[in-house]
Specification:
DNA-binding, homodimer, mainly alpha
Chain lengths: 195, 195
DNA sequence: GTCTATAACTTGATAGAC
DNA sequence: GTCTATCAAGTTATAGAC
């Protein structure tokens, strides 16, 4: 039972917002303290260090992606459907918690050497599973025989604007957005289908 | 005729590499000085400040994108061909100078307030021109009637992995990569064309 | 142009009173 | 848990000798 005090949660939340806006390295403990109306030294009653804040955000979000990937592969066996669900998950997470998504995506390099190793290893695992889905889709003749690494990076990277740009899509447009993203990634944007 | 000494160029180059690896805020003048085998104070014989280094990289790359956009719109009038050329340019620049592309894309927020304003204004101009191409393509019935902002962000964001990931694609694979990116963006990855 | 020395300031983190 | 006070180290940048 890990009890997390309300104040501790507040600190994590404000830190994440500052990391998103200014980046980890440009965010001082004084800035975080100011955001939660405390003196710097008081922060250390709740957290061990600045880096601990970054670790929590990065690995919590990494865990969410790993869990989603595993759940999707268990629930469906059609690789195209699995891809659809992955795009769905990325989209929902990006819209629901763009702050954590940005910090997870852009600030992990400021983790300590050990943590970077662990983080990169998790990401490699995630990408490996993504590639396996593409292999299955290509073997089944459902997905074009394009280089899988390029497909994967283009899809994942193509979703990153959802958290990086300021415009949060309102909740009632979320399903429309997802349908559009699926259409673009799966069928492209060209009308005439003379391929 | 602005003459740029070899040493000054070396400083810019090493600074860009360090900004790419560690981020602007986490890169010290000492690190830059060390990379070019000088003492910190000697740097100031060649440059005015740390931020000047960032400014040069960001605005030089921004200028390249603006120039390319203008040249493409002058040279072709088919909007789909214009999109193709834009994707081509992004790809070539990302492979040829991934360091500048990364700093341009990720570190502009550390510019001073005035420079940020100018930078964002250039980007808005670029995006406006991109959207106009999509409008023309949709009016001509060539491009699907999907929300144009979402199309634009997905395409641009989907190319960002080209400079963010470590794997530089070897020069002899560049044309294959471009063809694949065009195929994915324009026609998607799904084989069956029952749309 | 490059150096040593240093100014002026900010950084993350700690000690100890309350 | 929160504070004041403080530390040691690091930051960008400058002054002035050579």
């Amino acid at each position: 039972m890990t009890e997390i005090s309300a104040k501790k949660q507040r600190i994590y939340q404000e830190a994440a917002r500052l990391f998103q806006d200014r980046g980890y390295a440009a965010t001082s403990m004084r800035a975080i303290a100011g955001a939660v109306d405390l003196e710097v030294s008081s922060l250390y009653s709740h957290i061990r260090s600045k880096e601990e804040l970054l670790q929590e955000i990065c690995f919590r979000t990494a865990g969410q992606f790993m869990d989603a990937m595993q759940a999707i592969r268990r629930k469906w066996d059609n690789p195209v459907r699995q891809l659809e669900e992955i795009i769905r998950f990325h989209t929902r997470l990006a819209l629901q918690d763009p702050t954590s998504a940005t910090v997870f995506s852009d600030e992990w390099k400021h983790l300590g050497p050990e943590e970077v190793k662990s983080f990169v290893s998790m990401r490699r695992n995630y990408e490996q599973q993504f590639l396996e889905i593409l292999v299955q889709g290509q073997r089944a003749g459902l997905i074009r025989d394009l280089p899988r690494h390029w497909i994967m990076h283009t899809i994942i990277s193509g979703l990153a604007w959802l958290y990086r740009t300021q415009h949060p899509v309102p909740p009632d447009e979320q399903e429309h957005l997802i349908q559009t993203l699926l259409a673009m990634n799966l069928h492209g944007i060209i009308k005439s289908q003379n391929v």
